Amino acid sequence: MEIKNKLYIVYNELFKREITKMVKKIADISTNDIPRESIILLQSTYDSINNSYKLLYGNNFIDSLSLLRCAFESILFSLAIELDSQLYLRYKSYNDDAFINYLKSKGKLELNEEKYRKLATPGNIRKIVSDNHKKIFKNFISDKRDSEAAKKELKTFYNYLCNFTHPSIIKTYAFKIQNDKESLENIKYIFKLNIVYCEMLLIHAIKYFLNDYSNIEDYYDLYLIIILLSANMVENIEELKKVLKKYEDYLYLNITRKHLNNNKSKEKMIENKLKELKDNPNVNELFIGLLGDVIKKFDAFDIWNKTFSE
User: Fold this and answer.
1) Mean of the pLDDT values across residues 217-226?
2) What pLDDT does residue 282 have?
């Protein structure tokens, strides 16, 4: 097995293991400060993401991204019902008649029933979350002071995923991508980054509920490495350029480009290291810098040793 394949396996397995550990941790949390429904939604998101991977590996890109939209919405909703008490109340009283009766019993019909009907719309959910993006997503979504950039990024990604769920020319054309045997494997590595992005949102949501961002920068480094390793898995750079040019409108690369642009020095450092590692049998001697630091910080020597001993 080529070194690039082994590196790809190591860091993706590490990423998957860290997410699994975090989901288990949030499942065990016991506090009245966090809506139990938020925890359930995050656990459901984890399952949906895993199923999205299975569909992608089965070359069913459309259904994979349709399911990913459900995961994306669940992440935002889990946060929104914790941030907005009125939304949480409306969510728990999902039956309209029951909710109206509740308002009557509390003498609160003057609160305007229509207002509550609008609380759970996708747009309002994104607004609630983006208004709090600095404390939830730190610098991952947007490093701007206001919430407009965060709102735009979440909306754009949501609309992109909707294109694969609702009848559209993109959905029709994406079906053809699944039959592009020549480029299929290369496309898959790029498509997968959409799922990885949602996994990063899940990590932030869990860290928000745990109130622990102590090693968030390490996750940013791991995310950057996975982006670069995914590109590195494409057979050659000319093939990568051809695939990106042919399917750019359907791959949604804005997110990965933004993260690469924000980490130019690290990106160059990793790319140079990957070139050194490409054909060198003494991989352990060259395994220094950010690539090695991430393995150390996440104590992933077991994954490394297992993969490189095979």
Assistant:
1) 93
2) 63
Q: What is the dihedral of CA 90, 135, 13, 292, to 10 degrees?
A: 180
Q: What mean pLDDT comes out for the span 249-254? A: 74
Number of C-beta neighbours around residue 268 at 10 A: 10
The candidate with the shortest Cα–Cα distance to 66, out of 52, 45, 46, is 52
- Of the candidates 121, 123, 144, the one whose C-alpha atom is nearest the C-alpha of residue 134 is 144
Mean pLDDT, to the nearest integer, of 256-280? 76
- Quick count: other Cβ atoms within 10 Å of Cβ 202? 24
Q: SS3 sequence, the chain?
A: CCHHHHHHHHHHHHHHHHHHHHHHHHHCCCCCCCCHHHHHHHHHHHHHHHHHHHHHHCCCHHHHHHHHHHHHHHHHHHHHHHHCHHHHHHHHCCCHHHHHHHHHHHCCHHHCHHHHHHHCCHHHHHHHHHCCHHHHCCCCCCCCCCCHHHHHHHHHHHHHHHCCCCCCHHHHHHHHHCCCCCCHHHHHHHHHHHHHHHHHHHHHHHHHHHCCCCCHHHHHHHHHHHHHHHHHCCCCHHHHHHHHHHHHHHHCCHHHHHHHHCCHHHHHHHHHHHHHHCCCCCHHHHCCCHHHHHHHHCCCHHHHHHHHHC
Mark 12-39 as b/e (b = at least 16 C-beta within 10 Å): bebbeebbeebbeebeeeeeeebbeebb
pLDDT at position 255: 80
308, two tokens: 């490189």
Query: What is the pLDDT, as a whole number, of residue 232?
Result: 83
Backbone angles phi and psi of 200, in degrees to 5: -65, -35
